[in-house]
Amino acid sequence: MTATRWRCCCGASLSDGEMALRCPRATDGDGVDHLLARPPAPRFEIEDDPNPFLRYRRMLSPWRVAQAGGLSDGDYCAIVRRLDDAVAAVDGRGFVVTPCERAPGLPGAPWVKDETGNVSGSHKGRHLMGVLIELAVRARLGQREGGPLAIASCGNAALAAAVLARAARRPLAVFIPPDASPSVVDRLRALGAELTICERTAGVAGDPCYHRFRAAVEGGALPFACQGPDCGLTIEGGRTLGWEIGERLAREA
Q1: pLDDT category of residue 18 using cuts at 50, 70 and 90
Q2: What is the dihedral of CA 87, 92, 98, 101, to 10 degrees?
Q3: Cα–Cα distance between 25 and 253 in angstroms, integer?
Q4: pLDDT at position 204
Q5: With contact defined as beta carbons under 8 Å apart, do 230 and 223 qualify?
Q6: Helix (H) or strand (E) holding 217
Q7: Is residue 50 within 8 Å of 94, Cβ to Cβ?
Q8: How many Å is the Cα radius of gyration of the chain?
Q9: d(CA 87, CA 120)
Q10: Is the pLDDT score of 211 beyond 90?
Q11: In angstroms, rounded to a whole number, what is the distance separating the alpha carbons of residues 43 and 41?
Q12: How confident is the model at residue 245 (pLDDT cuts 50, 70, 90)?
C-alpha cells in the first residue's frame, strides 16, 4: 500500500509520502487559503472501538502511512493506545466517541455535538491528535520530524496543544497576546509550554502572534495548529468527528 498523495486547492501536490503540513506554493500574503486535501478512502470502514483514531483508522492518513512503511495494523494500534494512555495520564481522559443528540430545549430540537467532555475540554484536541499520531508513526519508521511544536493561540487550541505535547514529551512554543486569560496562561505554564508574549508593532498589519508563529515554523518548528493552511493534517482528527455524526444520524434513518 502507498500513502495517499495530498493535493492543494491551488493545484499543487505533495510528493508521495510527504507529511501534509503546508502547501509548497503557499507564501505569506499571497491572498490564497492553501488547503490540502487527499482523496477519500475507497471504503467506509468502522471498527468496534470507542477510540475514534482506532474506530476509523483504516480511513485515516496516519494508518495509511504506517501501512505504506511496512507497519502492521497491530503496530499502528499500539502506537495510538500508547499515546492515548499518555494523554489520559496528563488530562485525566483519553479520546472516545463524543455525544451527538437532539436538544429538545432549543427551538427546532437541533442536533448538538457535545465536545465539552473531550480531551482538554473542546474539539481542538481531536484535530491535533491526528497530527501527533502521524508524527509518532513517522518516528517509528525512522522519519522523525525534528524541532519543537508551535502554535499561535491563547484559548482552546493552545490548551489542547499543550496537553498533547506534554503527553508526547515534545517541546511546545505557544505565541500569545498580552491580554491572554490568566487562567489559560497558568495552565499552559503548568503543562510545560514555552510562552512568548507578542506585542503589536505600530504599522504592522495582522496578528503579531501569528507572525511570530510563522517565523518559528520558518526557523524549523513544526506547525501544531488547527488552521488547515498551516497544518493540513489537522483535518484528519476533524474527519473522525464528521464520521461520528454520520453514524449517529444513520441510526435515526
Answers
A1: confident
A2: -160
A3: 43
A4: 85
A5: yes
A6: helix 208-218
A7: no
A8: 18
A9: 10
A10: yes
A11: 5
A12: very high
